Amino acid sequence: MLLPMAPTDSLFLLGESREHPMHVGGLAVFTPPEGASAADVRAMFDAALLGDQVATPFRKRARRSLTSLGQWGWDTLPHHEVDLEHHVRRDALPQPAGMTELMTLVSRLHGTLLDRSRPLWEMHLIEGLADGRYAIYTKIHHALADGASSMRLLRESMSEDPHRQNMPAPWQPHHRLTVVPAPTGGTDTQGGSTLPGLATLPGLATLPGLAWGAARAAVGEVAGLVPAAVETVDRARRGTGGALSLTAPHTLFNVPISGARHVAARSFPLERIRLLAKHADATINDIVLTMCAGTLRAYLHTRDALPDNPLIAMVPVSLRAPDTGTGDRTPGGNRVGVLMCNLATHLPDPAHRLETVRNCMNEGKAALQAMSPAQVLAMSALGAAPLGVEMFLGRRGPLRPPFNVVISNVAGPRTPLYWNGARLDTLYPLSIPTTGQALNITCTSSDDQIVFGLTGCRRTVPDLHPMLDHLDAELDLLETAVGL
Amino acid sequence: MLLPMAPTDSLFLLGESREHPMHVGGLAVFTPPEGASAADVRAMFDAALLGDQVATPFRKRARRSLTSLGQWGWDTLPHHEVDLEHHVRRDALPQPAGMTELMTLVSRLHGTLLDRSRPLWEMHLIEGLADGRYAIYTKIHHALADGASSMRLLRESMSEDPHRQNMPAPWQPHHRLTVVPAPTGGTDTQGGSTLPGLATLPGLATLPGLAWGAARAAVGEVAGLVPAAVETVDRARRGTGGALSLTAPHTLFNVPISGARHVAARSFPLERIRLLAKHADATINDIVLTMCAGTLRAYLHTRDALPDNPLIAMVPVSLRAPDTGTGDRTPGGNRVGVLMCNLATHLPDPAHRLETVRNCMNEGKAALQAMSPAQVLAMSALGAAPLGVEMFLGRRGPLRPPFNVVISNVAGPRTPLYWNGARLDTLYPLSIPTTGQALNITCTSSDDQIVFGLTGCRRTVPDLHPMLDHLDAELDLLETAVGL
User: Fold this and answer.
1) What is the per-residue pLDDT across B52-76, written as a single tens digit (0 to 9) for each?
2) Where's the O-acyltransferase WSD1 C-terminal domain (chains A, B) (predicted)?
3) Of A95, A113, A125, which is closest to B18 when you measure between CB atoms?
4) Which of B37, B81, B86 best tests the A interface by mutation, with the highest count of A CBs <10 A?
5) Which one of A23, A124, A142, A262 is the catalytic residue?
6) Among the residues of A326-416, which ranges form H helices?
7) Closest Cα of chain B to A259: distance in Å?
8) Do residues B312 and B248 lie in contact, with contact meaning Cβ atoms separated by under 8 Å?
9) Among all residues of B, which ones are annotated catalytic?
10) Which ipTM was obtained for this model?
11) What number of other Cβ atoms are within 10 A of residue A63's Cβ?
12) Dihedrals phi, psi of A482, to nearest 5 degrees
C-alpha cells in the first residue's frame, strides 16, 4: 500500500539531480571494546547481517505511480525484499590509513546518488584505520529522514552502558535499550539544554522543507507579520544583520555547483570553547560562529577573494516553545527558524568580529522573540525561500545571494554511547551543499567535544583542508584576545 | 575552444540517467614483477600521480553552452586543471579478499555516475587481494571512448617487454613504447585474426551510436535494401534467426532497469575452447554462444521462467572490408553489424543447441555477405533501433523485445602485456545494461584465455553468480557431447 508522503519531503525527491544529491550523512568512529579489535567489531556487524529483520524506517521505499496520480508515496517492503547486501557495505581504506584516507573515501561516498528503486539508505562499514578504530558512514535520503532523525535512529540503537551485549545493528528492529535523553530543544536563551551555547535543531537540511511548511502555516497570521518584517529588513539594510539580510556580498561559495563532494572535519574539546565563551560573555554558539567567521575570512583572503562587505551566515535556531523544554519530542515541536548573522569578515581583529557576531545574534533573537511563532516561521521562510527556489528549479543562483553560508549546530549525544561495548568516539555530520551555497558547515556536540563538519562541492570549493587549520588558528586567536 | 562532438556520441550524454549510466568499464588484474609486491605496484602509481602531464583523451571535458546553441562539444582542459586526485582513486578491499570481494566493489563502482563537470573517466587502484595481485578498475564514459578505444588506450600504455621500466601511467602522455599489434578486424570467415572464432569488434556499447550513423550512411543505397531486408525478415519469421529477428520471447531480462549494477566474470583456457570448436566443426564464437545459451536456459529454468520459444541473442560482428585485414586501423574501418542468433534454449540437448547456433550464425553471415556494407549497416540499424529508441527516451521496453540479450566478443591483447614489469593477468570487460536489456554478456580474449564478463541490473537480475557455474557446466557438457 502506498502511504502518502509529506509534500515537503517529496520536494527532496523532485529537486534532486546528479549535481544535487539530497541525502544527509554521518560518519561515526568507534573504539573497540577493551581487549577487542576492529576485526571483532566488524564480526559483530557481519553476524547482524545474517539476521533477516529490518526496522521499518529502513524498509520504506519511495514510489509514485499512475494510481497515485504521479504523487510520491511510501511503500513498506517486506523484510525479505530488502537486499541488505546492497544497503550495508564493507569498505576498506588503502594502507596506511588515517583520518585523511577516511575522509577521502567518505567524500566520494557522499557524492553519489542513492538507488531510488530501493529504501533510500546505505551504511558503509569501513575497516583499515591504523589506530585500530572502526568507522561507519551512513547515508540517508532527506525525504526519509533529516539530520536529527538520522541521529535519533543512531542514538536509539546505542546504549549508555559499555557492558551491554547482544545489541541489534542500527538497521535492525530494537526496543529502547536504555533511557537515552532525547535531544532537548530550546535556543540558548532558554537554558533548557546542558549545552546552553548551542542552538539545538533538526539539521540544516530540513530548512527548505520547513520553510515551505512555515509559509503555509503562517497564512493566518500574515496580517500581523508585516510590521515585524519591515523592521527586520530595515535593520538588515543598516548592515547589522538581524533575522533577515539583504546585504550578502557575492563570494566564491555562491555559485552553481557540480556533483562531487569534499568533506573535512575537525573536533575541539568542548570545555575549551565553554571556557572561552564564559570569559567573553558570549554563548558557545557565538564562539562557533566567530571561529567560522575568522576561518572564512582567512580562506578567502589567501585566495585574494575576500569581499569588502562582511559575509552573512544563515544560522538555524530552534523555535521550540518555552513550555515544552522537558525533553519530550512532541510532533511539530521541532520547528526551525533562521537568523541572519553578520560574520564581520571585513574586520581584521578577532575580538571585533566576536563582538559583531554576539550583538547580531542577540538582536536577532530579540526580534524573533518579539514575533509569534508563526510570524517567526514566515520570516524564516522569507529568508530561506531564494535558496529553496533555486535549489528546486536547478537554476543558477541570483547575482546577490540571500546569505553566503549556512552554519548550523546539531546537538549530538550528551553522554558516551556504546554499541556492544564499542565506544562512539566522534560523530561527524555531513550535509547538503546546493546551487548558490557550495559550502555547508554543520557542527555536532557530544559529551566532551564539538565537531565542525564541512561539506563542499569538490569543484567550486576545491580544498577544504586549509579551513581546518584556520579553525585551529582562530580558536587560538580568540583565546589570546580574551586573555586566556 | 569548444570542438564539436559527433551527434552519435552526444546521444550517450543525452540518454544518460541515474538508471542508465552510460560508461563502459574494464577490470585489469596484475601480477607484480618477480620479487615485488602489490605495494610496489601501488608505489609506482603513486609516483606517477605526482606528475602533472595528462594525455589528451583524459583532459577532454563535455560541455554545452548558449554559444554552442545547446549542442554538446569537447573542451580540452589545460594539464593543471585536471584534478587527478578526483580521477585516480585508491581503493582497498575488506579482508580477507578474493575475487568475490573485488567483484562486489567493482559492481558498486560501475553503478555510479561520472561527474559531468570534469573529463569523463575514473581509475581505481585497488589493493588488498589476498593472492598478492593488484587490480585496476577503469571507467570511461561512452561519449568519450567505446570499449575498443578504452582497450586501445590501455594497450598503448603497456609493453610486451617484461623488463621495460619507467613507463608512464595509462593517463599520462606516452609515445608508442613497443609495437603492440592493434586488434585486427575481420569476421571469423575472413581468417584475418589469430583467434579465428571471434568476431572482433569495438564493443557492444558502440552499437546504438553506430546504428544511428549507419542509418544515415545507408540513405543513398536504401532503394537496393528492401529485397534483402524482406528476405531476412522472412527467415526470422520462420524461426531460424538470421540477421534480423522478430520472434524473441519476453523474459525477465527484458524489463525496465534501475541504477545499481552487479558484475561477475569467469575465465576459461582458450585452448580448451579452441579444441572443442575443432572437434565440433564450429568456430570459437559458436562455442561461446552455445555456452551462453545453455547458461541462460539453466538460469531461467531454475527460476521457473524459461519461455517456450528460444531466446534470441544480438551478436555484433565486424564489418571490416576484406582488403584491410592487415591490422591497420583506418578511420571508419571499425564498423559493426549485428546478427540475430537463435540460442535454442528450448532444446534440452547441448549438441542440438550447438547445431542450431552454428547453422544460425552461418546463415546470418551468408546473408550479411550478400549485402553491400551500407545495406548491412542499415539492416543492423533496423535491428538495433528499438534498443536505441527505448534507451534514449527512457521508456518502458516494448512487450515483445527485438532480442533477449546482447552477447559480444571483444578481442583483447594477444600477447602477454606488462606495465613496468607487472603482468596483466586478466582483463574483465564491463558493459552497459539498458532498459529492456537488463543483462549484457561481453567476452574478451587474451593470449591464453577467454573471459566472460556479465553486467546486470542488480535489481532485475539479482544473482549473477549461478551463471558462472552454469558456464562451467555447459563447457563440460559440450565436451562430453563431442566426445572429448
Assistant:
1) 899 988 999 998 876 767 778 898 9
2) 333-478
3) A113
4) B86
5) A142
6) 350-369, 373-393
7) 6
8) yes
9) 142
10) 0.73
11) 14
12) -95, 5
Is the per-residue pLDDT at A225 higher than 50? no
Over residues B283-321, the pLDDT tens digits come to: 999 999 999 999 999 999 999 999 999 999 988 776 554
Task: Enter the C-alpha cell of residue A410.
Answer: 546539531
Q: Cis ω on the peptide bond leading into residue B350 (within 30° of 0)?
A: no
Q: Cβ of A258 and B116 within 8 Å? A: yes
CB atoms near residue A142 (< 10 Å)? 27
Lowest mean pLDDT among A48-62, A354-368, B169-183: B169-183
Instruction: Report which of residues A436 and A359 the model is more confident about.
Output: A359
> DSSP H helical segments within A72-187, as ranges?
84-87, 99-110, 147-156
Greater confidence, B411 or A335?
A: B411
Given B86, B117, B258, which is nearest A115 (Cβ)? B258
Reported as a pLDDT band with limits 50, 70 and 90, residue B367 is confident
**Full 3-state SS string of chain B:** CCEECCHHHHHHHHCCECCECCEEEEEEEEECCCCCCHHHHHHHHHHHHCCCCCCHHHHEEEECCCCCCCCCEEEECCHHHCCHHHHEEEEEEEEEECHHHHHHHHHHHHCCCCCCCCCCEEEEEEEEECCCCEEEEEEEECCCCCHHHHHHHHHHCCECCCCCCCCCCCCCCCCCCCCCCCCCCCCCCCCCCCCCCCCCCCCHHHHHHHHHHHHHHHHHHHHHHHHHHHHHHHHHHCCCCECCCCCCCCCCCCCCCCCCEEEEEEEEEHHHHHHHHHHHCCCHHHHHHHHHHHHHHHHHHHCCCCCCCCCEEEEEEECCCHHHCCCCCCCCCCCEEEEEEECCCCCCCHHHHHHHHHHHHHHHHHHHHCCCHHHHHHHHHHHHHHHHHHHHHCCCCCCCCCCCEEEEEEECCCCCCEECCEEEEEEEEECCCECCECEEEEEEECCCEEEEEEEEECCCCCCCHHHHHHHHHHHHHHHHHCCC
Higher model confidence: residue A152 or residue A300? A300
Say what the pLDDT of residue A318 is: 63
CB contact under 8 A, B94 and A90: yes
Distance from first CA to last CA of chain B, Å, rounded? 61
Instruction: State whether B18 and A116 contact (CB < 8 Å).
Output: yes
CA dist list (Å): B447 to A59, A385, B45, B270, B278:
48, 62, 25, 8, 18
- Whether domain B228-416+427-481 has CATH 3.40.50.880: the reply is no
The predicted pLDDT at position A427 comes to 85
- What is d(CA B138, CA B129) in angstroms, rounded to the nearest whole number? 17
Q: Is there a contact between B113 and A113 if contact means CB atoms under 8 Å apart?
A: yes
With beta carbons under 8 A apart, name residues in chain A contacting B262. Answer: none
Per-residue pLDDT band at B247 (split at 50, 70, 90): confident
- CA separation (Å) from A118 to A60, A81, A354, B259? 8, 9, 47, 10
In which band, very low, low, confident or very high, does the pLDDT at B226 lie, cut at 50, 70 and 90? very low
User: What are the extents of the domains in chain A?
Assistant: 2-156, 228-416+427-481
Q: Which amino acid is located at B313 in the chain?
A: A
- Rounded to a whole number of angstroms, the distance from the CA of B88 to the nearest CA of chain A is 12
The secondary structure element, H or E, covering residue A465 is: helix A465-481
N-to-C CA span, chain A: 61
User: Which CATH superfamily includes the segment(s) B2-156?
Assistant: Chloramphenicol acetyltransferase-like domain (3.30.559.10)
CA atoms within 13 Å, Cβ hemisphere of B148: 23
pLDDT tens across B130-186, in order?
Answer: 999 999 999 998 888 766 667 677 778 889 999 999 899 989 987 543 333 333 333
- pLDDT value, residue B50: 92
**Domains B2-156 and B228-416+427-481 fall in the same CATH topology:** yes
